[in-house]
Every structure is written in structure tokens, then in C-alpha cells.
Write a structure and sequence with these properties.
Elements: E1 9-11, E2 14-16, E3 20-22, H1 37-48, E4 53-61, H2 80-93, E5 97-103, E6 120-121, E7 135-136, H3 139-158, E8 163-168, H4 172-175, H5 192-195, H6 197-210, E9 215-223, H7 232-243, E10 250-255, H8 261-267, H9 279-287, E11 292-295, H10 302-310, E12 316-318, H11 320-325, H12 329-334, H13 349-357, E13 386-390, H14 394-405, E14 409-413, H15 422-426, H16 436-449, E15 452-454, H17 461-465, E16 471-474, E17 478-480, E18 493-494, H18 495-500, E19 508-513, H19 518-529, E20 533-537, H20 549-561, E21 565-567, E22 571-578, E23 581-587, E24 595-599, E25 601-605, E26 608-610, H21 613-618, H22 630-635, E27 650-653, H23 663-674
Parallel strand pairs: 3-4, 3-12, 4-5, 5-8, 6-7, 8-9, 9-10, 10-11, 11-12, 13-14, 13-16, 14-15, 16-27, 18-25, 19-20, 19-25, 20-21
Antiparallel strand pairs: 1-2, 17-26, 22-23, 23-24
Helix pairs in contact: 1-2, 3-6, 14-16, 14-23
Length: 677
């Protein structure tokens, strides 16, 4: 039986080669607002991986008073055309279509950047997420912006784009027609007819500029699912009016609004939330419109994507975050290698990093966004070597996987009876159980590749030497450290104690988060949900300072629903025994004032220290004495340090065995060191 995912689909003048596409999203890889090599290679990889359509930008902005909020492309600049041409040429070379999403962000941006122009919106209503207070668009603003949409569409067509998608959820286009964004009393406000005047002007100007045979669609919140907003019936009527006599070729269905992190997490669900929550609604839209229906929202796996198409709910299905984890999904389906698809685990590291660090990265695919230097498909080495990896956490598993893909003879030694390291502790928070996919996928790959995995081996230097390795990788992780206290460091437990189940705090619990990462937040969520009375104390000005906005939402929800107390700008200085309870001195970096809490348990998080004794025991026998050439590492070149000719193996340590970092850093260490071994 033919796979419904692999059936071609006609869209306007295009014939798309299958039903898989990647919906528009902004990885923030632009340079000076242009889609230069990093941006181009990212999309080329998806085309090489077999998708039918890669939708670029999320979104490209059409005017200067829509300053980029998350690395957006500058569709208002003529200089973008040759860069767009290079991008589309590269995508087309691999057989995929390429489109781009255009927008004016309206109030969904900030004013204190780029040209320092005031933010403009239908009404002076502030969006919580981006916080700017917009000016009400005047007649000349509206006329100008309509023209800018048309200009941008013409540039995209000139650059070889196969079509455009107008962003119509949370941006200026729909801010005009939703009652949530429009309180005007002129000809652009009040009745639905008036509120639709601006978006219809945009579509008519765009269609006139690009012609009738060019693909134009909208990515639209057909149901805002919010009191006072556009409901499903009204949304379907809006869609009908926008399409008119055929202005549109497709609708990319969204459900919900995105004015805050909480609302955004419902539109783009993260780990612990239901998969494909809006798929049935997309099916309703498809049943009630003549337009091609596209959709994607937490479509994490091929089976769900196949079900979406086979069940007639959509014409095209997007697996955007899944393709960030594995850009070759389609190719693996075509080649009957579906079990090798690297899973999206819903960590939403990709989205959170856009705001935290200005670039989207996958928590467990370090090649995404680094296509110029890191391979998605690891090439074979010219000759096999003997590789020993110690530690089966994310770093060690990835090192063993990459070495085995290179064709080396790999032995992996792990002290525990199972793989996964700290990841398996994290998954004891039921909401974060999907992170286990980071481990299970690699364990399956090691089995496929024939790696010799040995559990319950607390490796010492002599055990490693007995294997006569050419390369040794130490990935032994880190051990929890306690923050320095004036007194009572022996009276506290660590978040790892809690997550491992060794300590089950009850009664009143003070959790001192002196690191600000998921480690403390996840343990706090488990404690709060257990029924304990929890106070989180942190010296930072916000809780979970290293946790991105999307991931903070479910933590904040748990703390709110359990009446957890959060004390910011506070530091634990000392802990004293007080009978069978603990007396905790709490103060601040801002003054000498201190207070005292009496609690049943104190739990602390201050990151980890490297568990690196084995590494130091092995240094003397290595050819490089453990040294890493940082210039070669950064450039993606092989490691060639030889400062001990008497040594018999190269030695590297990676992940938390070097320093406390995160899962992505550990996997990136492994990939960039091992891809050339």
C-alpha cells in the first residue's frame, strides 16, 4: 500500500513531491537581516532530507517600523533579493519547493532597536510578551504598510520563492480584524467589514503585484480560543472573506493566540503537553473550506503525521521542530529507515534559545544550525580505530554513536546498570519523561551499529588500558556540589538526591536554587506536586533565570497551583540543626539584613563539579596529554595535538566531566571531537 505521506500534492502552479513540509519558523540565523550562508544551509539540509516544501522565515518583516524581534529577515530591503535567490536555488537543487512568510509585527516587537521607530498597531494596546506600547496606526501608516507588503512580495518572487505566506496570528495583519487588537471607531474598526479592510487591502495589493499564478496563503488562527477573540465560526467566516473570489491558495491552520508565554505554549505545545492538540480542528477547517489546508503543532512523529494525512485532516503536514531534531525524516521514510529518525523530545530548547541567545539549536542534534561545519550524516573514516568511551550519559552515548558511524571498533563502559546519566533523573519528573528519547534513540543506534556496551563497570585506568585503545573519551559526568555556606553544608540535601528518590522531603521544604537551571526547577516541581509546603529561595531577580520563557510556563503553573512561595534576591547563608528541624539564615546581597526560617528539609542546587579522576589517571599515557586544539575544535577540523610521543592513545573528556553545562553542550562536545576521529 502506498504511504500517504509520500503522495504528491498540487498547490497552485506547484506539484509538491510529498505531504511533508516545515512550517515557517525563525531560527534567528540571519546576518544583517539577510539569509546568508548559515540560513541557506539550514534550509538546504531539509530539502536534501526530502521534505516537499521548506517554508522560510518566521516572519520576514516588510517595513522598518516592524523591527526584528527574533532575528527576522529584512524583506523591506532590496539587498535581500540576491540572498533569497541563493537560498531558493540551493533548495530547488535538492527537489524541494521554497516559500517565505511575510509580516508586519505590529505590536509584537519593541521600539528600542534598529531605527528606533515607534511600534504601530490598530489600537494602543500593549502585548504582554514584547511589552511595547504601540501608537495607533494613522491613515498614512496604513497606506504605507499596505504598499510595503506588496513590495516585499515582489522581492520574494524576484528572488525565486515559489510562494508567500502572510502571517495572520498575533501580528499586524490580524491585529486589525480581531477584537482583541482593534478598538478603533473609524473606517478600520467596529464591524467585521471595517476590521477586515486593512488585511483585504494587503491581499489585494500583494495579489496584484505577484499575479494570479503565484502561490499566496495565510497562516491563520482560525480560532483564537480566547474570550473576546475570534471563535471558530467567526474565524471560518473571516477566512472565507479573505479568500474572496480566489485571493488565496492555502490556509495554514493555527488555533490560539500568542500574546504571552502561557498562550504561546498552548499554540506551540512543549514537553508534557498533548501531541497534535489542534489536528482535529484543522480537519474541521479542511471540511469547511475549498482551500488547501496545511497544519503543524507538536506533530512529533511520523506515525502522527501519516495519520493526519491519511485521515483527511490536512493536505500537508508540518513537522517543524521534528525536522530541527532530524532534517532527514522524509528520506528515512522513503528508504524504510523510519526507526532511525532522531526523535523530537519536546524540550523546546530551540525556541527558548532564540530569546536567550539569539539562535535556535536542538537539545540533542548539534549539527542543526551548524551545517557548514557539523555533519547530519557522519562519514566513514578511511581506517578503523579502537575507541573506548567511559560513561553512558548523553555525551558518552553520542561519542560512541559518532565513532561507530565512522566505522570504528567502539566499547562503551558505564558504571550504572543502565544508560542515560542525569537525563534519567530528569525523567522522574513525569512531565519531562519525553527527554528519555535522547537516551533510547542512541541506545538503539548503538545496537544497530554493533557497539560493545558494558554496564556495571566502574572503569579504572587499568580497565581502559586493557582494551588497548587508540582513542579514549571520558564522559563520566559531574557530581552535585553544595553552595558554600557559613555553616551547615552537611545538613542539606541536593536536588539530585530528590530526583534519584534517595531523599523524599515532606512537611516544609526550602529549596535554595543557586544555579537557576532546569535542575532546580524540575526538583522544585516534583517537591511541590508531592504535597510538601515549598519555598524557593534564589539570589537571582527571577526564578529559573537560565530557563527559557516557554519552559518556565509549566514550572510556574505548578508553583502557582501548589501555593509555592518564591523569594527572589535572597541567599541562604547558614543552616543549623534545631531539634529535629532546621533553622535557615536567609539574607541578601543587597543589605546586611537577615531573617530565619524553620523548616523540615533544605534542598540545594549549585550545579556539578567534574567527576574526572579517571581522566587525570589516563593523561600521562595519552599522546596529547588530554590537550584540545581549540582553533581546530571551533573550525570543525580534526584534533592533531601530539605532545607526548610515548603515549598510546588520544584522550578527550567531554560534557560535565569538563564543567557543568547542559545536554546540548555535552552532545556538541562529542560530535565535534569524534566526527573526524
Amino acid at each position: 500500500m502506498a504511504d500517504p505521506l509520500l503522495e504528491p500534492f498540487p498547490l497552485g502552479h506547484l506539484t509538491l513531491r510529498n505531504r511533508l513540509f516545515t512550517s515557517a519558523h525563525e531560527p534567528a540565523y540571519s546576518e544583517d537581516g539577510m539569509p546568508k550562508d548559515r540560513y541557506r544551509l539550514y534550509h538546504e539540509e531539509r530539502a536534501r532530507g526530502g521534505v516537499a516544501l521548506t517554508m522560510t522565515a518566521g516572519s520576514a518583516v516588510v517595513a522598518e517600523d516592524s523591527p526584528p524581534a527574533f532575528g527576522n529577515l529584512h524583506a523591506y530591503d532590496d539587498a535581500i533579493v540576491p540572498w533569497i535567490q541563493r537560498l531558493t536555488d540551493g533548495v530547488h537543487e535538492h527537489g524541494a519547493a521554497c516559500m517565505i512568510q511575510l509580516t508586519h509585527l505590529g505590536r509584537r516587537t519593541g521600539w528600542a532597536q534598529d531605527d528606533w521607530l515607534p511600534v504601530v498597531a490598530p489600537s494602543p494596546l500593549r502585548e504582554p510578551a514584547h511589552r511595547a506600547h504601540p501608537k495607533e496606526a494613522e491613515d498614512w501608516d496604513i497606506e504605507r504598510i499596505v504598499g510595503r507588503y506588496a513590495d516585499a512580495a515582489e522581492r520574494m518572487k524576484a528572488g525565486g520563492m515559489d510562494g508567500i505566506e502572510i502571517q495572520s496570528y498575533g501580528h499586524l495583519f490580524d491585529q486589525f480584524y480581531t477584537p482583541l487588537g482593534n478598538e478603533r471607531d473609524d473606517g478600520f474598526g467596529g464591524s467585521l467589514e471595517n476590521r477586515l479592510r486593512f488585511p483585504l487591502m494587503v491581499l489585494e495589493a500583494v495579489r496584484e503585484r505577484v499575479g494570479p499564478d503565484y502561490v499566496v496563503g495565510v497562516r491563520m488562527a482560525v480560532d483564537e480560543a480566547t474570550p473576546g477573540g475570534i471563535d471558530a465560526e467567526a474565524g471560518l467566516e473571516v477566512l472565507r472573506l479573505l479568500n474572496g473570489d480566489g485571493r488565496l491558495d492555502f490556509v495554514n491552520v493555527i488555533r490560539g493566540v500568542i500574546g504571552s508565554d502561557v498562550e504561546l505554549s498552548e499554540v506551540i505545545p512543549i514537553q508534557g503537553m498533548p501531541a497534535a492538540p489542534h489536528l482535529d480542528f484543522a480537519g474541521r477547517v479542511r471540511a469547511e473550506t475549498d482551500l488547501a489546508v496545511l497544519h503543524g503543532a507538536k506533530i512529533d512523529d511520523v506515525a502522527t503525521a501519516r495519520h493526519a494525512v491519511a485521515g483527511g485532516r490536512v493536505d500537508m503536514i508540518s513537522m517543524a521542530r521534528a525536522h530541527i531534531a532530524d532534517p532527514h525524516i522524509a528520506a528515512k521514510v522513503i528508504e524504510a529507515r523510519e526507526e532511525q529518525v532522531r526523535p523530537c523530545v519536546g524540550a523546546t530548547y530551540c525556541l527558548d534559545r532564540i530569546y536567550q541567545a539569539g539562535e535556535a539549536l536542538c537539545v540533542h542534534n548539534a549539527a542543526t544550525g551548524r551545517e557548514a561545519t557539523m555533519p547530519h550524516e557522519v562519514p566513514r573514516a578511511s581506517h578503523a580505530r579502537r575507541v573506548v568511551v567511559v560513561g553512558a550519559g548523553p555525551a558518552g552515548l553520542e561519542a560512541a554513536r559518532v565513532a561507530a558511524e565512522r566505522g570504528h571498533d567502539v566499547t562503551l563502559l558505564e558504571a550504572m546498570p543502565w544508560a542515560g546519566g542525569q537525563v534519567m533523573l530528569v525523567t522522574r519528573n513525569p512531565r519531562r519523561a519525553d527527554l528519555e528519547g535522547i537516551v533510547t534513540w542512541r541506545v538503539q543506534e548503538l545496537e544497530r551499529l554493533g557497539v560493545d556496551v558494558r554496564y556495571d563497570v566502574l572503569a579504572e585506568a587499568r580497565d581502559v588500558a586493557a582494551l588497548e585503545p587508540d582513542v579514549v573519551v571520558v564522559a563520566t559526568g559531574g557530581l552535585p556540589q553544595v553552595p558554600r555556606l557559613e555553616y551547615g553544608m552537611d545538613l542539606v540535601s541536593t536536588t539530585r538526591d530528590v530526583m534519584s528518590g534517595e531523599v523524599r522531603p515532606t512537611g516544609s521544604v526550602l529549596l535554595y536554587d543557586d544555579d537557576g537551571t532546569h535542575s532546580a526547577m524540575s526538583a522544585a516541581e516534583v517537591i511541590a506536586r508531592s504535597g510538601a509546603q515549598l519555598e524557593i529561595v534564589t539570589p537571582e531577580r527571577t526564578v529559573g533565570v537560565e530557563v527559557g520563557g516557554m519552559n518556565l510556563v509549566p514550572y510556574a503553573r505548578a508553583f502557582n497551583e501548589t501555593d509555592t512561595t518564591i523569594s527572589l534576591n535572597q541567599r541562604v547563608f547558614a543552616v543549623h540543626a534545631d531539634g529535629d528541624r532546621l533553622s535557615v539564615e536567609v539574607g541578601s546581597d543587597h543589605s546586611e539584613h537577615r531573617t530565619t526560617r524553620t523548616v523540615d528539609h533544605v534542598v540545594v542546587d549549585h550545579g556539578t563539579l567534574p567527576n574526572a579522576d579517571l581522566y587525570f589517571d589516563l593523561k600521562a599515557g595519552s599522546t596529547n596529554l588530554g590537550e584540545v586544539d581549540h582553533h581546530a575544535l571551533i573550525a570543525g577540523r580534526p584534533q592533531a595535538v601530539t605532545n607526548n610521543p610515548a603515549g598510546s592513545y588520544q584522550l578527550f573528556r567531554i560534557g560535565d566531566a569538563v564543567a557543568n553545562r547542559d545536554i546540548h553542550a555535552a552532545i556538541y562536545d562529542a560530535l565535534r571531537l569524534m566526527k573526524d576521529v
